[in-house]
Design brief:
Layout lengths: L8 E6 L12 E6 L9 E9 L3 H5 L17 E11 L9 E7 L3 E4 L8 E2 L16 H13 L7 E4 L7 H10 L4 E6 L2 H10 L4 E4 L5 H8 L4 E6 L3 H8 L2 E9 L19 H5 L3 E4 L9 H13 L7 E5 L4 H4 L11 E5 L5
The structure holds NADP nicotinamide-adenine-dinucleotide phosphate.
Protein name: NADP-dependent oxidoreductase
Keywords: Oxidoreductase
Organism: Oceanobacter antarcticus
Length: about 350
């Protein structure tokens, strides 16, 4: 290993708190010092950064379910890195790990955060899959469909943000559990075609060009048994009007809000929960951290059986980190958005 003293630590630092949609100019490039690990710390070199809508929540003054990112700090991201030096006996130099990182070449990570710092096994799939199908999106899809919605054989299931890292897997997972009909909601004809051709959906609704209520009436006249809500807002309100009696709704995300604030307006059709005996559940991946290995094994088995299609949208180059973030909210391509910044040694 080269002397760490000689290495430059490129960083993208939060320069100002975004107003409205996040912009690349909210960040500034910096050449920082290499951090020195203390007790329990692991010094990691960044290899891949994943992109998640919740990064926008962490940029609010409140921060939501994580501490707010402060001006002058490097931008937090879920990433994959390689251990350079370890002061935690559970990690060794050379290990590949996945967990909360930030937009810099070298950083300290620890295993005492809200999610485990996962040591990645040598595997016969690409390393980047640990951010997608075996990362936030895939695991959220798995726990959301299996536990949150408890999809049953015969169910009619609707999933919003169906081309996203989560939605691009949730439809096929619902199908693997025996759902009778799986309908995805996506923006634009091409994305609607993509989910039907690639992601296990029977039909798609184009939320940008079609009337969602009318299409739901056509596609599921008996009502929706399970709705995986990644979008909130008007879309959730419309879905509430189309749920079957005793239907289940999973609140997973609220893309329509842009996550510019933690305070959101709830649905106005909520009395449907009462009149149709609906069950509305929330989920957060943090709740399932102890069940991740078993979930990842099941996801791997489904991939092996050809039941899940893995879609990645990989870019390369540290300099691109801030420019990709806004695309999460403005029409990114299907699948998990990932930035590769270095090769593993
Ligand atoms: N609860 C949890 O633990 C947890 C974990 C992971 C993710 N999530 C949530 O799951 C949701 C999806 O995240 P992801 O990582 O799967 O997606 P992603 O890969 O970041 O892609 C974003 C998705 O959102 C859709 N979208 C963006 N703006 C929209 C709008 N105004 N109306 C409708 N759809 C919109 C995009 O579809 P189009 O291109 O078709 O617009 C795209 O499919 C987010 O709300 C996220 O916060 C929750």
């Amino acid at each position: 290993m080269a002397s760490t003293q000689a290495l430059i630590n490129r960083q993208w630092i939060l320069a100002k708190r975004p107003e409205g949609a996040v912009k690349p100019t909210d960040f500034i490039f910096n050449k920082g010092e290499l951090p020195v690990p203390g007790d329990g710390d692991v010094l990691v070199r960044s290899l891949y950064f994943g992109y998640d809508a919740s990064q926008r929540i962490w940029l609010t003054e409140d921060g939501g379910y994580m501490p707010s990112i402060q001006i002058g700090e490097s931008m937090r991201a879920v990433g994959i890195g390689q251990v350079i030096e370890s002061c935690d006996p559970d990690y060794a130099t050379g290990d590949l790990v996945e967990g909360f990182m930030s937009w810099q070449d070298y950083l300290i990570v620890r295993n005492d955060g809200p999610m485990p710092l996962r040591k990645l096994p040598k595997a016969n799939f690409p390393l980047s899959w640990n951010l997608g199908i075996f990362g936030v999106g895939g695991l959220t899809a798995y726990f959301g469909v299996v536990d949150g919605l408890r999809v049953q054989p015969g169910d009619t299931v609707v999933i919003s943000a169906a081309t996203g890292a989560t939605g691009s897997l949730a439809g096929a997972i619902a199908r693997a559990l025996g759902a009778q009909k799986v309908i995805g909601i996506a923006g634009g004809a091409d994305k609607c075609q993509w989910i039907v051709d690639n992601a296990g959906y029977d039909a798609a609704i184009d939320y940008k060009n079609e009337d969602i209520g009318e299409r739901l009436q056509e596609l599921c006249p008996q009502g929706v048994n399970a709705y995986f809500d990644n979008v909130g807002g008007d879309m959730l309100d419309t879905l509430l009007l189309h749920m079957a009696p005793e239907g289940r709704v999973l609140i997973c995300g609220a893309m329509s809000s842009g996550y510019t604030d933690v305070k959101l307006q709830g649905p106005s059709n909520y009395m449907r929960i009462c009149t149709h005996k609906l069950t509305v559940r929330g989920m957060h991946l943090f709740f399932y951290k102890d069940e991740i290995p078993a979930a990842a094994a099941q996801l791997a088995a489904w991939v092996e059986e050809g039941k899940l299609h893995v879609e990645e949208n990989i870019h390369e180059g540290f300099e691109k980190a801030p420019g990709l973030l806004p695309t999460i909210f403005s029409g990114k391509q299907p699948g998990k958005l990932i930035l590769k910044v270095a090769n593993a040694s």
